[in-house]
Amino acid sequence: MSETIQTLLQESRTFPxxxxxxxxxxxxxxxxxxxxxxDPEGFWEGWAKQLDWFEPWHTVCDFQPPYAQWFxxxxxxxxxxxxxxxxxxxxxxxxxxIGEGEPGDTRFITYGELKDxxxxxxxxLKALGVGKGDRVSVYMPMIPELAVTMLACAxxxxxxxxxxxxxxxxxxxxxxxxxxxxxxxxxxxxWRRGNIVPLKNTVDETMDLGCPTxxxxxxxxxxxTPGEVTNGVVTPEYSQGSWVEGRDIWWHDLVPQQSTxxxxxxxxxxxxxxxxxxxxxxxxxxxxxxxTGGYLTGTYATSKLVxxxxxxxxxxxxxxxxxxxxxxxxxxxxMANGATVLMFEGAxxxxxxxxxxxxxxxxxxxxxxxxxxAIRAFMKWGDEYPNRCDLSSLRLLxxxxxxxxxxxxxxxxxxxxxxxxPVVDTWWQTETGAIMISPxxxxxxxxxxxxxxxxxxxxxxxxxxxxxxxEVTGPGIIDSAAGGFLVxxxxxxxxxxxxxxxxxxxxxxxxxxxxxxYFAGDGVKLDEEGYLWLxxxxxxxxxxxxxxxxxxxxxxxxxxxxxxxxxAVIGKTHDIKGQAIAAFVILRGGHQNHDGLVDELKKHVAHxxxxxxxxxxxxxxAELPKTRSGKIMRRLLRDVAEGxxxxxxxxxxxxxxxxxxxxxxxxxxx
Length: 670
Ligand code: ATP
Ligand code: MG
What we know:
single chain, alpha/beta, Rossmann fold, GMP Synthetase, Chain A, domain 3, 2 domains, seven-stranded mixed β-sheet, five-stranded parallel β-sheet, binds adenosine-5'-triphosphate, binds magnesium ion
């Protein structure tokens, strides 16, 4: 981005909070922004004090860029704050976790029961030689035991490294070895679209690849042997793997026998809580480090204010715990608040495309937090699925993971929220630990496609190439409109403490572009009212005939067309213009490609944005290459469009998609 980004797509619809929502909201006084901006450390200290500490801190923040320490000297335990303090108080019999298995088997675990289960597993891990300072690989389905495992590690001061259950043996081995894990906790398998994901078999392959630090594999029986029945659904054939005596241990042979008494290890505020590898949409994953006190403070505060968490909420975050969203907004943030969380094991289209809506109806979920990729899939499938379910329990909707196109935002707000639910579009990263930019639902008027304002206490700046720019610390607290690089200029409690074992990469990736500021890697636009519009990765921004154009804006213009469900846009090398715009488009359910559609779409973009943004090529496709967390991988589409060999495809959900797409694309080019 040599120049600032041109303001292209205009979006003028605004949605102020309703008086009813404001009246009951956890945050409804805009003064919170001014107060936090005037004294960010004091603001965060106030939140930290709402957690239970064994010993107080002596210093709120010690920032030596690129590293910060928060609540220095304080002693705390994350499991104590997420479990014990509720179990020992009024929430003992409150449901902590509702586990919805893919076959429809449902479990309800109270905070009191959770305390016992976490303690037993914690003692079992100790029996396997795991202690304070060790690491544990967690490779499990999205069932309650996954949260139990994370919390059991936290209880004894071991760090977890959760690896998404869709990853291969190579990926699991690489992450396990990088973090030098002592134990792998897994299950025989998990359910996915009626099939079994053979987790234990993959762990066997992982161990065959060589994991010298792993002494034991703890295996939960989830799916059982083929022919077994779960809620009327029969376990199909799958690779069960082998059993290595001495190394492999069944969960049921070790855990239930343990004492339910296990003291919480007093951890230093800055002790490691977990390592989590990023989703890898830009390249090779990074082992992101999070520590205890600051991370818990950030996730606790943002859960309470952004999701407006209340005592009787049922919080349904559809992310997997293999991603940071599952860490921060299924486990640590909501549970530090004593909330009821829903964990769903399966796919949104199993047994039918209404599965999320059935779950909301069944458990009367009040908050839904999902990703634009899912929302666009629902739009593609059609309105009949949500429309046949009772969604009246919902009171707040959230989005995370990618920029949300304004049309997808409107669809979400109307078709799912029935116009009654505030929508919070939340921008953050594995590295930031907690939400950084988001509306506060009782304060902020929302604009479809804008993540709006920095959370109180967070300082965002929009920099140009030279590192000059505007600071944004709340509504209207800016100088003028601009577009550029998104940077965070002050430390915040949940910021990453680095890349595991790779300080040089940490410095280079985030702290070398600008002095003493965290560079997030994303482009952003600031409008006249101080609203932030995320534009995607700066690497994806196109330079067409000397103008910077964001892929996100062209994609949103395409999705605005009634026949388009999803679009991915890239800049393709062009002799004259530098880059020409190429688009890959998926149509909505019930819409077919026809003569003239491509021209119509090109015109639609030119009309919405301007002739400059008119795509040269539009390719109608059935699927797009995505990471396992559902993000579009534009760098691979650039390889396709420019006829290059495909780059690293190891983090793709389904590598076949991009190979097929390339074959069809090349055939269409003739
Ligand atoms: P890697 O860093 O390994 O390439 P990743 O960046 O996709 O992977 P995450 O930390 O899961 O891994 O994703 C954070 C990124 O997701 C952000 O940098 C941003 O690009 C995008 N993102 C998340 N939420 C939003 C949002 N609400 N609006 C726009 N973009 C978002
Ligand atoms: Mg990233």
